[in-house]
Amino acid sequence: MANISDIIEQFLLSSLSESDKISISRNELADYFACAPSQINYVLATRFTLDRGFIIESRRGGGGYVTVLRVGDESDILNELSMLNISDGLSFTRATQLVDRFVSEGYLSGSEGELIRQLLTDKALVAPGVNKDALRASLIKSLALYLRKKGGRK
Question: What is the pTM (predicted TM-score) of this model?
Fold first, then answer.
């Protein structure tokens, strides 16, 4: 039997099959699945990420509505990443998932991707007083801007 996270994910994916954008209330969805709103947050945060091709827009107040947007065209990922808010930063895992996506979509070669992954490690980002996650986000944003400007795949 599937766990509640899988069920919620499948529900949202089936809703997205009709449209590339849905707006939902976290609380209403939690009531529907008889779970805590934090379970909905967990599913959105872990299964509907930018590196998996989704953008989550959250609105405070008004019932906790969330918009889930499927990134349709490969170039959209470059546009979205070039506008990335770097205040939260990117973990090494998330940053490398984005680099992997650039490689799989043909924006980077495999060796370029590997080189960039090595440059994003904690060991490579050694500087006193620097937030490594914020620095990684800034580097990924710069990479996305460059790839968008360069245009085209390998």
Answer: 0.52
